[in-house]
Amino acid sequence: MYPARITDEFPAPSYRGNQKQALADIRAAFERGKDVVLVRAPTGSGKSLLARAIAGCARTAGEAAAEQVIDAYYTTPQVSQLDDVAEDALLEDLCVIRGKNNYDCILPGETDTPVNQAPCVRERKFDCQVKHRCPYFSDRAIASNRRIAAMTLAYFMQTAGSDVFGKRDVVVIDEAHGLGEWAEMYATIDLSPQSIPMWNDIDVPDIDGLDEAVAFTERVEHLAERRVKELRQKAELTGEEVAERDSLNTLRQDLGWFREDYTDTESATTWVVDQADGEHAPVTIKPMNPERYLKHTVWDRGNRFALLSATILNKEAFCANVGLDPSNVALVEVGHTFPVENRPLYDVAQGKMTYEHRDDTLPDIARTIVRIMARHTDEKGLIHCHSYAIQEQLKELLDDFGVGARVRTHDKEGRDGALSAWKRSDNPDVFLSVKMEEALDLEGDLCRWQVLCKAPYPNTRDSRVARRLEDDQWGWYYRTALRTVIQACGRVVRAPDDYGATYLADSSLLDLFDRAEHDMPDWFRAQVDRLSQPDLPRFAPDQALSALSSGTKRRHDRSRSRSGNGNHPLSDVWD
C-alpha cells in the first residue's frame, strides 16, 4: 500500500467539508504502520469518495513483486449503498459484481431465468456455448481483473477461498459499524422447514444444550447429503430443485463448520442454541463474536483495511467484537459540517414503549403524531415504528383518528416498492416504516420530519443478547441502541443546507442518552444538548389533513404477508 498518494486518488474535482483533513489523517494512520484504520465519518462527509481514495492506494501490478498481492476490494453490507456506488460517475472505476441471482441467462428461451437457475446449474454435464458472454461470468471476470472490485459484504464473504477473488492489498468496508453482528447473522444456522425440505422426515428432539445440538446436526447433515445425491442422479433439475440442492449444500458446509469450531478447544467462538417451542420445533444455532469466522472471510482477504461508518462508537469495544488487536488499529474522527440547528431533536415522549407499557403509551404517541402532522401540514414525514406489530397498531389508531388519508405503510415483501412510491409522491404523506434507520437518503423535500416510536434496544429474548447481558455487557447493549438512533437521525438531513426535525416519542430514548453519553460522537452530543420540547398545535385531525385537497384524500390499504424469511432485523440490508 502507498498511503502517500491518497490525495491524488481522491476522485472528486474539489474537497467539501472535512474531506481534505480526513485524507491527511487516514494517510498518517497508515504511515504510522497501522494495518486497520477506522474512519468515523458522519452523514454527508462523502464516505464513498474517501473509500475510493483509500482503495486507490493499493499496490498495482507494476509496483509489486511476483509474490505480492495487488489491487483493492470495496464492500458494503447494504445493497442500496452498492447501487449508489454503481450510479455515481465519480466512482465509475469501481467494478461492481453481484450474486448470480441478479443476472438473467442469455440462452434462447431462458432470458427470464436467473443465472443461478440456468441450464448450466440445472442439467448435468451441460456445456454452455455462450458462457464467455454470460452477464454474470463476464462481470465476474472483469471485476476479478480490475483494480477495485466492488461487491456486497455477503458476496465478499461467500467468495472466501475463491480462486477468482483471492487476497488483495487493500480492503475497504463501508458502513462497517455492524460488522460483528452481520457476521453473527451470516454464520447463524437455521434448522427449520424453510431450510430443510425433508423436515417432516426428521424426528426433532427437545434440544437441551449444545452437545445435543451437535448430535442433531450430524443427523441432519446425513439426510441432507442423501437428498443431494438423489438430486445429482437426475439428468435435469427444475429451478426449485436447483435451489433445494444449493441450499442443502450450503447447510452441509455450515453444519460441518459449526461442529469443527465447537470442538476446537482453541476457538474463541461461543455458540448458543435456541428452540423456543421445544420438541419438533425449529432449531437455531448462533455464534457470538465469531472472530474465527471473520478471520477466514474478511481479515485473511487483505493486507490493509479501512472501515468506514458514522457510528463506530467505541474503538476498543468494536475491536473486541470483530477480533482485532486495538494496538494495530487507528481511529480517525471526521467532524460534522451540517449546522446543528438544522438537525434538531425534539422531546415529545409519552411514556415507555416496552412490551408491558406499549398498549398504554402508543395511543398517546398516535395523538402526538397527529399534532406533529398538523405542525408539518405540507411536508412529508417518516415514522420509525421499530416493528411490524407497532406499525399495525399505529396505522389502526391513525385511521381511527381520521388521518389515514395521509398515511402509507409497507410489508416485508413490498418495502422497496412502497418506499419508492412514497418518495415519488407529491403529497405530504407520512410513511410508517420498519427497519429503515439505515441506508435511506431522504434529502430535501423527500422528508422534513421523522418520529422515533421506540428505543431500538436489542431483543432480550434473543439468546445472544441474553447471553451478553448475563455476562454484564450492558455497555454493548446501550451502544447498539444508540448506534441505531444516530443512524436514524441521519436519514432526513443529508447536506449542509438541508434541514429536518427528529421527534423522540419513547421516554426510554432520553434514558438511553444518559446511559450512553460517554460513547456519543461530539457532533451528536451537540444535538442532544439542544434537545427541547416543541410547541405543537392542539389535537385536530382536520388540521393535519389541511394540505390535502378533497380530491386527493385516500386510504392506503394493504394486505400484510406474514410469511418469508426476513425476520432478522438486518435481513433487509443483505443481498
Automatic annotation (TrEMBL):
Give the InterPro entries listed for this entry: ATP-dep_Helicase_C, DinG/Rad3-like, P-loop_NTPase, RAD3-like_helicase_DEAD
Q: Which UniProt keywords apply?
A: ATP-binding, DNA-binding, Helicase, Hydrolase, Nucleotide-binding
Domain named ATP-dependent helicase C-terminal is located at: 388-511
- Show the ranges annotated as biased composition (Basic residues): 552-561
Q: Where is this region: Disordered?
A: 542-575
Coiled-coil annotation: which residues? none
> From the UniProt record, which GO molecular function terms apply?
helicase activity
Per its UniProt entry, which superkingdom is the organism in?
Answer: Archaea
Please name the Pfam families in this protein's record. Answer: DEAD_2, Helicase_C_2
Q: What is the protein name stated in its UniProt record?
A: ATP-dependent DNA helicase
- In its UniProt entry, the species of origin is given as Haloarcula argentinensis
